[in-house]
Amino acid sequence: TLFRSAEHLADALLQLARVFITPGLIFGSNGNQYIRISLCSNETMLKEALWRLKTVCAPVRFSQMEQKIAI
């Protein structure tokens, strides 16, 4: 599997992209396959975070990630 859990994905993105996302598990036991991204920031910062995520995730085929996370 690509990621063991949403928590594992969140940890990896924090370390590699320096972007904090919330694992869905904190919203209930069924949330382990999901992540939550807060949009409570200005547009410039959101664009920077998206660029960082794209840069880190580019080597991974989107179809593989699509199976592991909900967008």
Structural write-up:
The protein has helices at 6-17, 43-57, 62-68, and strands at residues 22-23, 35-36. The chain is mostly helical. The chain has a two-stranded antiparallel sheet.
Defining key terms:
two-stranded antiparallel ribbon; mainly alpha; flat; 71 residues; 3 helices
Task: Summarize the SSE layout with pairings.
Layout: H1 6-17, E1 22-23, E2 35-36, H2 43-57, H3 62-68
The gist of it:
This protein has about 70 residues and is mainly alpha-helical.
Question: Which strand-content bin applies to the residues?
Answer: 5-15%
Helix % is 40-55%
How many strands appear in the DSSP assignment? 2
Shape: flat
- Could you give a short account of the major beta sheet? 2 strands, antiparallel
Strands of the widest sheet, in order across it, are: 1-2
Low-confidence stretches: none
Q: What is the structural class? A: mainly alpha
Output the helix-strand order. Answer: HEEHH
Enumerate how many helices there are, as a single number.
Answer: 3
The N- and C-terminal alpha carbons lie at a distance of 18 Å
* Average pLDDT number: 80
Query: Whole-number radius of gyration?
Result: 12 Å
